[in-house]
Backbone:
């Protein structure tokens, strides 16, 4: 359980700092390294609707996370309240990250926030982000410039500050200027805007594209011409957030569309794992185009009796075998081991067995050899392997495991004559918080598939009591997880034949390709 939580010693009265951080357009891979660093060290994070909430998983466990809104029709905090909040937190000595979708200085009122901060005499830093104005089109296969098509790009807003006069955007000038024009906000006002452009003499058949939720797993693109795009968008109920691209470059999408063609494009998949573990599975599904809801159902916590576990770890060298049943167990074990000892050789002559590829990998990460890795990743297979290796009679075995879990290994190894100590390395508790808003999103938007990677993820998901979205299928990592799911009345649609993350991803791919 390598904890990211580091308490920093800051002297009393020290002033804080505000980081206005661009969260990028949605794809987690499009966040800058600097933004990630800022999130990791923040005391307070103030985020809004367009910043991908998954990145809050990088925050320290003790960071204060504040959702500032705003979705259409839902303003949690007014701009004035946000400004005040940032100033107050920084005056309290906090490192404050203000996380804003795209780039903080592109149509996001970042400039106003920066002004409020500087007026309050507070130190600040700007971390630019990749703006949706460029990334949205790029992920739809539309380069905002092309040497043969245009030599300038204009960004404009379709959502006027209500305080401004009606004609703040000079559509006559835009019409004359030509080039590529990218509009942020204002898909709701597409009809009057395109009408105005036509009135100013822009040609009717100018290619136009709307890119909704660009660079995320739920990206959708609608193309048309200046004349027909507004009725098309209305027909389809095409909603914000979207960028609109006006210009010849839109036609390049014909050949350059890439993102929407990946194997899992458009599939909404729920990943149920503890927050820290989810990234491997989610990352792989996202790379194939899926829209992943990371729904943490469990959280890893220290065991009820950490001291007892630590004593077993201290005596690790006295065992003939140490058996790890999960990557969490490996982490918890070595976290303590290296607090007690500064030399890996203190593990003595103990041999190591690991169940599952991820567990094995975690052991190898600590530069230790895995002596026994059953070819099937289930406990029964471990017993079979030990039998093959001449048995375990009178051997001392340390079984590193979760507090709750199956005790088949203990029973069977004891039956074979082994002297087994169980080390409870950690416990899993239901994750009842919804810090990333994933649960809310699942309720609102539904999903195509849910993944279960262990029996406890099944049990914990069901324990959350989230209504089952209509038509949501089930993918399981292996027979034991499937059995648990069936026992709870679920039907298994996909079961991995290799019981690890890669095996599960492959099975899901095959399922949707069929
Ligand atoms: N600072 C942001 C823009 C904030 S204004 C940036 O640089 O991207 C909000 C508008 O941005 C939305 O109305 C929409 O037009 C656009 N937008 C933000 N994220 C988007 C996304 N993922 N896909 C499409 N449009 C997006």
Residues:
């Amino acid at each position: 359980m390598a904890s990211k939580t580091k308490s920093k010693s800051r002297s009393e009265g020290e002033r804080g700092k505000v980081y206005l951080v661009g969260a990028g357009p949605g794809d987690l891979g499009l966040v800058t390294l600097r933004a990630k660093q800022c999130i990791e060290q923040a005391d307070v994070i103030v985020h809004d609707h367009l910043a991908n909430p998954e990145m809050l998983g990088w925050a320290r466990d003790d960071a204060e996370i504040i959702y500032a809104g705003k979705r259409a029709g839902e303003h949690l905090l007014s701009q004035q309240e946000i400004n005040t909040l940032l100033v107050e937190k920084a005056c309290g000595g906090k490192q404050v990250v203000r996380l804003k979708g795209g780039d903080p200085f592109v149509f996001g009122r970042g400039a106003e926030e920066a002004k409020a901060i500087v007026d309050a005499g507070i130190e600040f830093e700007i971390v630019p982000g990749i703006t949706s104005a460029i990334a949205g089109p790029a992920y739809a296969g539309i380069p905002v410039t092309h040497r043969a098509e245009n030599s300038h790009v204009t960004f404009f807003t379709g959502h006027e500050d209500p305080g401004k006069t009606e004609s703040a955007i000079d559509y006559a000038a835009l019409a004359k200027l030509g080039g590529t024009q990218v509009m942020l906000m204002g898909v709701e006002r597409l009809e009057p805007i395109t009408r105005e452009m036509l009135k100013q003499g822009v040609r009717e058949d100018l290619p136009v594209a709307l890119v909704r939720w660009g660079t995320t797993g739920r990206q959708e693109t609608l193309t048309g011409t200046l004349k027909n795009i507004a009725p098309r968008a209305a027909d389809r109920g095409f909603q914000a957030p979207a960028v609109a691209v006006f210009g010849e470059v839109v036609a390049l999408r014909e050949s350059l569309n890439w993102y929407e063609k990946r194997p899992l494009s458009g599939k909404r998949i729920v990943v149920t794992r503890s927050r820290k573990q989810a990234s491997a599975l989610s990352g792989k599904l996202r790379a194939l185009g899926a829209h992943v809801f990371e729904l943490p159902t469990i959280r890893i916590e220290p065991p009820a009796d950490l001291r007892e576990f630590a004593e077993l770890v201290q005596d690790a060298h006295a065992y003939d075998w140490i058996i790890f049943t999960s990557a969490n167990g490996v982490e918890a074990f070595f976290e303590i081991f290296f607090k007690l000892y500064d030399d890996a050789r203190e593990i003595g002559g103990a041999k190591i067995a690991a169940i599952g590829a991820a567990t094995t990998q975690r052991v190898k990460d600590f530069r230790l050899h895995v002596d026994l890795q059953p070819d099937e990743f289930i406990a029964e297979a471990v017993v079979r392997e030990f039998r093959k290796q001449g048995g375990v009679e009178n051997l001392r075995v340390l079984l590193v495991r979760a507090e709750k879990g199956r005790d088949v290994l203990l029973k069977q190894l004891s039956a074979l004559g082994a002297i087994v100590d169980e080390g409870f390395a950690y416990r899993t508790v239901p994750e009842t918080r919804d810090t990333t808003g994933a649960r809310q999103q699942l309720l609102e938007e539904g999903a195509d598939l849910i993944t279960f990677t262990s029996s406890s993820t099944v049990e914990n998901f069901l324990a959350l009591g989230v209504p089952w979205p209509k038509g949501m299928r089930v993918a399981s990592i292996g027979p034991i997880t499937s059995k648990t799911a069936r026992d709870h009345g679920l039907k298994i649609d996909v079961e991995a034949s290799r019981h690890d993350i890669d095996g599960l991803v492959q099975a899901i791919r095959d399922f949707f390709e069929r």
